Amino acid sequence: MEETVLLCEDSIEGILSGVYAAYELRRAHGSVHLQTGGLENYRLFTRYQEVAPDMEKSGKVLRTIYRRFGEDAYTQLCQAMVSYDSEKADAVYHTIVVGLLGQYRGNLMDHLSCRPVQKVFQLSRNTGVEIHHLLGFLRFQELENGVLLARYAPKNDITAMLAAHFADRLPNEDFAIYDEKRQYYALHPKGKQWYLVREALPFAEGEAAYSEDEANYQALYRQFCGAVTVQERKNKQLQRNMLPYRFRKYMVEF
After folding, report:
1. Which pLDDT score, from 0 to 100, does residue 57 have?
2. H-helix or E-strand containing 36?
């Protein structure tokens, strides 16, 4: 049987639109696959079809996931969909298929003997660990205009998830979280709903003008970190395990 590969946008909306389109094909699910990003290599006897992201269709799939599988599975599937892994879309699609077929009882994500479920579980765990790290490692710096700016370059596309957390923690602050790797940012006006801006910051890295208080606090914090360090007890291996190098570029104390 000829296989069909649906090419989706690399986003939650894009992947879920691909899931909706896969069901619309009314074909055996084993012969349908989802793929994000560009197409590098064509496979023989395979039909490729592009799927445009559709908010209404993706919303229907998202509500079905929440209603049928529960909050935990909903969260894990969403975290898997923002992973950097190239196989995430197909794993999410076939996990949803397994869940809707009702082949397993109980929590869908507990059935790790199923390969797509296992893949989604692994991707979700990887994304969740990075989110957990950055809730503590992300650094906001105050600009001259009072906006708090955080720069970072995560492996996974987690800016929206971090923005939701910090909007709850800092509701009365103007802040922005900029993903340098993907060149877009979440913007939160104080007292209002945050939103995503799909473009680079309007200024380069070296052009950001920080407030006088920010410069003073940064100097004090570096002085504090140096004062509490016990040189004789330094353990770089343990430090690297607890704080990976890739986070340090954006941390004031380093």
Report:
1. 96
2. strand 32-36
pLDDT tens digit string along 87-114? 999 999 999 999 999 877 889 999 999 9
The DSSP-derived string for 117-133 is HHHHHHHHHHHHHHHHH
DSSP assignment, residue 211? -
Burial of 161 per CB tally in 10 Å (0-12, 13-18, 19+): buried
For the whole model, what pTM was predicted? 0.86
CA distance 132 to 243: 12
Give the contacts of 9 (CB within 8 A, at least 6 positions apart).
Answer: 15, 17, 36, 51, 52, 53
Q: Which tokens is 30 given?
A: 């084993």
Higher pLDDT, 126 or 243: 126
DSSP β-ladder status, 175-179 and 141-142? unpaired
